[in-house]
Design a protein that fits this description.
- This protein is of the alpha/beta class.
- Strands 5, 6, 7, 8, 9, 10 and 11 form a 7-stranded mixed sheet that branches.
- A hairpin with a 5-residue loop joins β2 and β3.
- α1 packs across α6 and α2 packs across α3.
- It is globular, with a radius of gyration of 17 Å.
Amino acid sequence: MKEIAQELLEIKAVFLKPDEPFTWASGIKSPIYCDNRMTLSYVKTRNLVENAYASLIKEHFNDVDCIVGTATAGIGHAAIIAHLLDKPMAYVRGSAKDHGRKNLIEGYIPKNSKVVLIEDLISTGKSSIECINVLKEAQIEVVAVIAIFTYGMKKSIDNFNDISMPLYTLTNLDELLEVASKENYIKIEDIEKIKKFRDNPNDESWIK
C-alpha cells in the first residue's frame, strides 16, 4: 500500500540517505534505515497499519487460532491485531529466559494450533524463520508471516521459499521508492543506488 509507504516516510520510520549511508550491526553499509517501532507512536499511522494487518488476515487467514508476534518489534502490533480480530495473542522470544520456566513462547498456544506470525520488518528473514522453528518444535503451525515492510532482498525471498512459507507485507521497497521520488524525499538517480543495494547488500559499489 502506497499510503502506508507515505506514512513511513512522513513519521521518519524510514530514512533514505544514499549519500550518507547507515552502518547496520552486521557492518553492512546501507542507504536505508527502517524503524517501524515508530508506527506505534503515531495514532493515524498506527490505525492505518493495524487495520491493514487485520484486513489482510481476515481475507486470507480468518480461521487462524492465534496471532503471534516476534520479540520485540512484533509484540505491540500482534496485541493490537489480536484485539481487532478478537483472537488470542502470544509472542516468541529471541532467546529463552534464564530463570523461571525459561520460556521461548510467551502466552498459551495449544498444540496443533494454526497461527500467523507478525513481524515489523523483513530484511533477510532469518529472525522470522528462527521463530517459525520454535513454534514448529512446539507443534504449532505457522500459516504465514505478515510484516509492515520488506526490502525485497533475494536472501529473504530464497529463505521463505526454502521452507515454503507465504510472506505478506503491507508495503515494500519499490512502493516506498516510488512515493519517495514523487514527494522529493530522494532524487530519481538515487533510486538505482538503493535498488542496487537491495539486490546485493554486500556489493558497496553503489556508494561510489
